[in-house]
Structure formats: C-alpha cells, structure tokens
Design goal:
The structure is a homodimer. By secondary structure, chain A is α/β, with parallel strands linked by helices. In chain A, 37% of the residues lie in helices and 14% in strands. The first copy, chain A, is built from 15 helices and twelve strands. The first copy, chain A, has helices spanning 62-75, 85-92, 107-130, 145-158, 172-183, 194-209, 243-252, 271-274, 286-302, 315-322, 347-353, 355-363, 376-392, 402-413, 468-472, and strands at residues 50-55, 80-84, 135-139, 161-168, 225-229, 234-238, 262-266, 308-311, 329-330, 396-400, 429-436, 439-446. In chain A, the strands form two sheets. Chain A has a six-stranded mixed sheet, sandwiched between helices. Chain A has a six-stranded mixed sheet with strand order 9-8-10-7-11-12, sandwiched between helices. In chain A, strand 8, helix 10 (315-322) and strand 9 (329-330) form a beta-alpha-beta unit. At the A-B interface, strand 6, helix 7, strand 9 and helix 13 of A face strand 6, helix 7, strand 9 and helix 13 of B. Strand 6 of chain A pairs antiparallel with strand 6 (205-209) of chain B. Chain B: Keywords: ATP-binding, Hydrolase, Kinase, Multifunctional enzyme, Nucleotide-binding, Phosphoprotein, Transferase. Chain B: InterPro entries: 6Pfruct_kin, 6Phosfructo_kin, His_Pase_superF_clade-1, His_PPase_superfam, P-loop_NTPase, PG/BPGM_mutase_AS. Chain B: Residues 16-230 form the 6-phosphofructo-2-kinase domain.
C-alpha cells in the first residue's frame, strides 16, 4: 500500500487513481483555488509528494536523522532521497577555509549558500516531480523563519506537502559527541587537527545562534512539524496531515542514539538444509545443534549488557535459542518466507514442477510471490514492526532465517530492493551491527561449525525458455 | 508478543517488558478524557493487552446515589471533597487489585486529576506497586468542541436524568468552573521527569515527554492517530464466491452469479448513500477485487486484508476437514480464537496482522472495506468491543453491509442486507467439542451447501 506504482500486473497493490481532470478543493487553509498570484499552486491529492525540511543548529543530528529516515522510508518502499545543502556547498566551494564563511555579514558566503540552497531545491523538484520520488528530505539548518517560508512556498507552488523536523539540543556533551562522531572526519576538516576542527566548528555554530528562530507553538501553529528535544526526551508534534507524516513521526519517536549492537544470525543448520530443501519446519541437524552451543558460548564471551533474544515461531530458531539458556521472545513475523506450493521442495523439484515460476522468480526475485506464498516485498512489510522494535531496543540478538535476515540486513546497510534477495547470509555466521556515524559497522563472525551453503546466485539465463541446466547452474550442493 | 501468558504450549511467548502500566487521564471536564479512556482500553484489549478503565465519576455515582448540582464540586465543599477523595482511593484500590492480582497489564485511571498534588499521590501509588505511570492530558479551549462534548455525552448522563437539556448544560458549565482555578496543566519544566502526552485541541498538536517503553510508544502512536471528525465505516464481505456455494473454505475463487449481482447492488447502494470522499479498500484476493471493480471507483488493495489462511484445510469442506483432520477440527472448536490451522493462521494471528488496518481506519474518515468473514469478524470486534471468545462467532453474512458510525463512547451499527440471496457460511460452535465426538456431532452446525 506504500508504493505508487506497481511494475507487474501480477499483484496490483496501489491506488488506482485517475489523474484529476478538474480542479479540486484546496487542502491548505487560506489558499485560493484559481487565484492568479505570484506563485501558481499545483493540485495536491493524498498521494502528493512530501517535502521534509530539517531545522536546527549545526551538530544537532539533522543529517543523522535525514539519512536514517531516508533509509527507513526506502526500505518500506517509499522512494525517498535526501538533499544535503552542505554537500552542494562543498561541491561549489572546493576548499573550506574557516568558520568565517558562515559569518552572518559575509556577503560572499551568504550568496553562495543561497545559491546552494536553490540548486538543492531545484534537484528536489526534479526528483519529486519528474523522477517519481515520493519524499525528499531537505537537509540544511533552515534556522530562520524567512528561509523556511521560502521553502514552504516552493512546496506549495509544486504541490508538495511540507513537514518540518526540528532538532533542538542544548546539552554540551551531546553536541561535543556529535562533533567527534561526524564533524572531525568531515572533508571540511581533512587538514586540521581535532582540536583545530572542534574550535572552528564551535565558532561555526555561533554564527547561526543569533538569527536562530526555533519553531514556535504560536507563530508556526499552521505548519506541520515535529520538534525533537534533547535527542528524544520530548517531542512537540503539530498538525500531522496524513499517513506518511504519521509514520515519520512514529519512526522519529522510536529511534535513539544510545550505543548498542544488533546481532543477526540464522538458526543452526536444519535437516532440510542438508537435503537442499527450502522452507518447512524441520529441526536442527547434528551440526546445527553444535552451532547452537557455539552460539551460546559466543554470546557469553561477548558479555553483552541486557541482551534481548528474539526468534521466529519455527522449530529451528527456537531450538537454537534454547541452547543459550536465557529468556527469548518468539515473533511469528520472523518466520521464514512462505514458499507456498514450493514449500519443502529442492530447487531441482521446483524446476521440474514449476519451471515457469522458477524463471519468473529469477527475473524479479524481490517482487515475485510464490503461488500461495509470499514475496520478499511482502516480507519487508511484515518485518516492519520488528525494525521499529529493533530501533527502540538496545542490545538484541535476532535468530531468524535466510530471507528474513536478508531483509533486516538490507534495512541496516541501506541495500536497495534489487540487491536484497542476493545478500549473503550464510549459516553459522553471526553479523554484529554497530551504528556508527551515519551508518552501520558490520562484523562477520563465523562460529567455526561447518554447514551447507544455501545461497543461490542469480543465474545468467532468466528467460522462461531456458534449459534445466541453465536454471540449476547456481544451485549450491546438497545431499 | 503482547500477552504475558500463553495458555497452550502451542506457541510459547515470553514477555520481556512485564511491568504493569498505569495510565492517568488529566483534564477539565468535557475534554474527552472518558472518550479517550474507553477507546484506548478497547484498542489495547483488541491487540491482546489486558486493559481496564476505572472511571472515578462512576464510583461517585455509586456512592452518592442522587446527583444534586454542581455545588458538590465546589472547591470549598468539605463533604464533597471527602467523598471525592474516598472514590479516588477506592478506584486506585481496584486498580491495584486488577494489575497486581488479576493479571491486568494496563489500567486507565479516568478522573480530572487536575492538580499536581493529586497526580503526585497517584504517581507514588504507582511507584509503591511497581507500575509505570503514563499521563494523558487533554487540553482544549475551543468552546464549540466543549459544547459538542456536553451534548454528546453529558446530557444523557445519569447525573442529569431529571433535567432539561438547558438546565443540564448550565449546571455542567458551572461544574467545569469549579475546577478551573485549581487546574495545573502538565508543565514542560515542572513535570519534565514524568512520562506523558499532552493532547491539544483534539489532536491539532501533541507534547510528548519521556516515553519509557514499547507500550507507551504504541499508546502515543494510537492517540496521535485517532480523531473525532464524524464519519462512517462500511464493512462488508466480497460477493458470494464459487467456493462459498460448494461449502468450501478459503482458496482464491471468483464470484458466483449471485456474487456478481451483489457487486452491482453494492455499487448502487454506495451511490445512493452519497458518501463524501469514500475510500474503498479490498484484499488481494480475486473475490474482493471483483466486487470492488463493479463500483467503478478507485480502490486500494491490502494484502493484510486477505482471508485467514486455513493452511492444510484450504479449499476443504467442513465434512472433508472432519474426514481428514478430526482432531484438529475438535481442537479448533475448543478454542477457535487461538487455534492455528496446521501451516495456517489463527484469529489471534489475524488480529496482529490487521492492526495496521485498524490504525489507518482510525486516521481516515469515510471508508468501505470489502473483505472476508474472519477478517470482518476481527474488525467488527474492534469497533464493537467484543472479547476474544465471541470474536470468531460474530455474524457476518454475505451480501450484508454493516455501517458503523461512532457516537458518544461507542459505535452505532446499521445492518443493510442488499437483497441478493447467498449461502450461509456461519458455523456455530457445536455442543460437543471433545476430541472423541462423533462425526455427526462435529458437523451438526455446518450450514447447508451444494
């Protein structure tokens, strides 16, 4: 229900909305349909693009939020792109000299910065109006009411719904930590020592402070926004207009920056894995049970604070968790992808019985849905509550399945839909994900218990008329 | 992942955050506290979190048999203050019993709680008992909204059963005045260490502070999605399908001849209703899509609206299920809500996958949902506050539209049969649900089919 377009006719999921042939009632209070003014206003229906506008002093986490939000929206299928005005500035002004560029009376600096903002907005317009983007995140300080009004008018002219996200933080420790995490390594400070960089950056923040106009409950009461205070201690939410804004607010209210790690792994090798069969609800093989013990040992050695353990409701993940000897929580939505009519078959049998389906799956593995089963796309939708809860939690170990793990990994590592179904998630290997700066550090730990390979690469020939041999070429070995 | 206890060993669930939650309503009279309490309680129970609301006004009505006038609430009325405090303590005592002895998860303490002193008393009570306290304040200054609230829920109150509308309104306005002088709203600075949501002007804006855990996060999300704009929700099933005719469950069949007739009748009905900005939702199964197609308007397909997956029993008749899986058939009759078809789903699973639909229904205004029998039962149970035991037996016949209109604290239901005959697909719970019952006993309540 998220995407606007559905490529295949196979499973139509969207609004089947015709383009309006006549002017509709305005959704924005105070605007007059048909009035000829300086700005022409475009029609806005419920599926009109959203322009998210970040607001806040430097080092308040705007880019962190922009990137994270963009990653989340893309993962759930809402085409989103972020536009970082600082990046436009770096592309234009090849070498950063000092904070003086940002002084409020630096005419040259102001001119360049305005130019960059407009260039970015132009790219936003292209993305949302010409390239079928749904959401654009405009990442800049946007600290004056004047600047925000300019952007709001831009949104109105183009038929976008504008939603502001402001981050307000006065805790000097948080700001210092942000500077260490993401500013010291910035291209702006590549030739500076850490102390020089920090000093310059603090002065840069000062440049903005005098003219900073925070979103105000009274003056800005007609705008749609969320104001995040002190990294999520409290929030002020005003005039949420539609579903996507409601989801964005929910997401932003659930993320945090407390250091932690997420451990992802599959169940131990199962009896059906050994035979090269997919799906089913088998128990662990001998080696799978060994892995479970190794996992218990690994977890102990890691000495993780308050580790939560989650499994699916299938035997093989539960058996794996049992060996850990700690409480764990079972989620039905973590169950492996349902292969429908192909459950418990080998790839050879699928080729034998459903050669057409087999080829169609190779053509579009992300969207392809097994007859009476699921697609990766369906998986992502059912895993969304898991992602939301993973964001809320701190240290978590998720014992799941190959397709499920691919979906979760794609979220954390920002992998697009085309790559997702081919991510390598081998048995008996734990992936430790630690959020760092704007992304995620990944450590891959093989727990030294041999297992079959269950990874089938995309074959060269995905045509429906391919030979049996061509279809099965990439199938991994099995009993 | 919600429930703390799992009766069957069938699917064990350990609950991690197992501290009871005490939700404390805050606000002047006629600000929607009871509306929010009841709605939130209904939602939490539907998603499987045992919740109960405790309305202090009700305790007062039980104690002081006859309401005289607003003077009871005057701040210097010693007798009144004494009784009101007594009621609050009685309610808190029942809260403690529910959360600590009866395995409740969430208690909603519905009273004005307008002074910081009263809120501190309650917070301490929560701490002493190991509850997490979360405040929900409703602030509203719009006189139109307050007047509308009074009309909706106060005029019909037992307090005003012998008064005219004008007398009741006048008295109630004076009652509100009694609270105003001592009202201390939740303050960003003074109350910065409390967990709360402050709802302003019926949801125009919210202030959220220190959300502590998952359940509070869900409560906040829910409260931020509900609204009070008048609207109606239309629920119906697809038209009669080919498999319905044969008494077979599940599958992905097309409409029968009568089913197609129903689709046309539905189109006509919808036109006649002249509904403003109606959204139409279907599942991704042929029979609902074919039904919607006849309407000639845009519609949205939701996979999560698909019928319950009957697993190994898909496309069987009840006779065949009895033939092939007599044990499973009996187990299902023993606990139809939690029973999961082998390789299929339970009603409980359905509720979990339908939660986003409910959330979106709350956000929307006029919506027509064309779905399936089990799905419709789940949605109906949410709106009509039916418990898990009754949910799988709610009557949702084919070719009948249920029009739900929120009113006061609940939902008005109109049932409209669109005059196209269809088979009955409702199977009541048989008398004998034992695993050793006879074939005849098992099949006694199966409706007729070809």
């Amino acid at each position: 229900m998220w995407g606007r377009r559905r490529p295949q006719g196979r499973h139509r999921r969207d609004f089947i909305s015709p383009e309006p042939a006549f002017l509709l009632e305005s959704e924005f209070p105070g605007t007059n349909v048909g009035r000829r003014g300086r700005w022409t206003r475009k029609l806005c229906m419920t599926n009109c693009p959203t322009l998210i506008v970040m607001v806040g002093l430097p080092a308040r986490g705007k880019t962190y939020i922009s990137k994270k939000l963009t990653r989340y929206l893309n993962w759930i299928g809402v085409p989103t792109k972020e536009f970082n005005v600082g990046q436009y500035r770096r592309d234009l002004v090849k070498k950063y000299k000092s904070f003086e560029f940002f002084l409020p009376d630096n005419e040259e600096g102001l001119k360049i910065r305005k130019q960059c903002a407009l260039a970015a907005l132009n790219d936003v317009r292209q993305y949302l109006s010409e390239e079928n983007g749904h959401v654009a995140v405009f990442d800049a300080t946007n600290t004056t009411r004047e600047r925000r009004e300019t952007i709001y008018k831009f949104g109105e002219e183009n038929g976008y719904k504008t939603f502001f996200v402001e981050s307000v933080c006065v805790d000097p420790e948080v700001i210092a930590a942000n500077i260490v995490q993401v500013k010291l390594g910035s291209p702006d400070y590549v030739d500076c020592s850490n102390d020089e960089a920090t000093e310059d950056f603090m002065k840069r923040i000062e440049c903005y402070k005098n003219s900073y106009e925070t979103l105000d409950e009274t003056l800005d009461k007609d705008l749609s926004y969320i104001k995040i205070m002190d990294v999520g201690r409290s929030y002020l939410v005003n005039r949420v207009m539609d579903h996507i804004q409601s989801r964005i607010v929910y997401y932003l209210m659930n993320i945090h920056v407390t250091p932690r790690s997420i451990y992802l792994c599959r169940h131990g090798e199962s009896e059906l894995n050994l035979k090269g069969r997919i799906g089913g609800d088998p128990g662990l093989s001998v080696r799978g049970k060994e892995f479970a013990k190794s996992l218990a040992q690994f977890i102990n050695e890691q000495n993780i604070k308050d580790l939560k353990v989650w499994t699916s409701q299938m035997k093989r993940t539960i058996q794996t968790a049992e060996a850990l000897g700690v409480p764990y929580e079972q989620w039905k939505v973590l169950n492996e992808i349902d292969a429908g009519v192909c459950e418990e078959m080998t790839y050879e049998e699928i080729q034998e019985n459903y050669p057409l389906e087999f080829a169609l799956r190779d053509q579009d593995k992300y969207r392809y849905r097994y007859p009476k089963g699921e697609s990766y796309e369906d998986l992502v939708q059912r895993l969304e509550p898991v992602i939301m809860e993973l964001e809320r939690q701190e240290n978590v170990l998720v014992i799941c399945h190959q397709a499920v793990m691919r979906c979760l990994l794609a979220y954390f590592l920002d992998k697009p839909a085309e790559q997702l179904p081919y991510l390598k998630c081998p048995l008996h290997t734990v992936l430790k994900l630690t959020p760092v700066a704007y992304g995620c550090k990944v450590e891959s730990i093989f727990l030294n218990v041999e297992a079959v390979n269950t990874h089938r690469d995309k074959p060269e020939n995905v045509g429906v008329d391919r030979s049996r041999e061509e279809a099965l070429r990439t199938v991994p070995n099995h009993l």
